[in-house]
Amino acid sequence: MNRVTLFSICASAGFLLYILEMVRRRKLREEYSILWLFGSALILVLSLKQDWLVVLAHAVGIVYPPSFLFLVGILFILLILIHFSIAISKLHQMNKKMAQEIALMKSNLPGKEKEPPKSSY
Amino acid sequence: MRSREIRDMNPFMEGHPPHRILVVIPAYREERTIGGLVRSLRERYPHDVLVVNDGSPDGTSAAAREAGAIVLDLPCNLGIGGAVQTGFLYARDRGYDIVVRIDGDGQHEVEDIPKVLEPILGGRADAVIGSRFLGETAYRGSIPRIFGIQHFRWLVNLFTGYRVTDPTSGFFAIDRRLIAFYSDHYPSDYPEVDSYILMHRLGARALEVPVRMYDRAEGKSSITAFRAVYYMVKVTLSFLINRIRRFG
Hints:
The structure holds two protein chains of two kinds.
Chain A: H1 3-24, H2 30-48, H3 50-59, H4 65-106
Helix pairs in contact in A: 1-2, 2-3, 3-4
Chain B: H1 4-7, E1 21-27, H2 31-44, E2 48-53, H3 60-66, E3 70-73, H4 80-94, E4 98-101, H5 113-121, E5 127-131, H6 143-160, E6 172-175, H7 176-185, H8 191-202, E7 206-210, H9 225-243
Parallel strand pairs in B: 1-2, 1-4, 2-3, 5-7
Antiparallel strand pairs in B: 4-6, 5-6
């Protein structure tokens, strides 16, 4: 087993354990951990079975296997970033609704401020 | 859905329940102008006045309350659309018939409010938008702004069929059905152009009337030169996406 194989196994295994530990300590929600777990597991598998990488690279017509690895890495990062953008948009929407609800509820609190003027039609 | 029989009756006819009208003013850092505006509204009209304070750190909220407005204080700044939408939610929950939305900075002429109300009261329109380009106007826009407005006129006409002269006008009145729809689907920022798509979706009858608009009395327009390009791109994109969006 050469040095780079050993290094990539250690790194991806460490990464996988780190993600699991974060989920266990509730610092990372399960729904956001899925992509990370999947990604680190993929790297671990490809480190252990490097001939799979060669087969996969050739299957999609890439001659130099490491560039296939880069491609997968970049696509994976893109996927995670899109996932975050969606999560942020959802939070934005929820935050807006909550702020509006708070403002409407505050205006209903008795005694906090004077009654809104009655409709004078 | 639509109660045409009721709405098309003469609102001044005896025995007809009077329309409940709410004037909604979104305000961010308008402490110098908001008091005077609210007072002049309350002196002239019987309508309720609602100021939505969009998280201003200054005395906007106190000044508006002092002048006799109902005030909603948003805990953080949501942007103009989010603030106006809070006003729609209030109107919907309290059963108002018509919302008039005007700016808090003195840009819109208080005396023009009957002009945007009248076609709705008369049952001739579901939404009435005040246009600074119809009739005589004190408005002087810069060349890039006029170009932007022309772009949006074309966009609105192409995708909704509405013929508008002032697609970015923030001076308008809407009826119950639009109040309810906007309560659920109003864009957070730069909502005016998008709202034509929403009106189109409802099949609302939109009408423009000439109003006067002034240069801002205080502060800066929310559209600075720096943001102009972002504004154009964002509004165009969100307009086009709204066109192909499903509204639940």
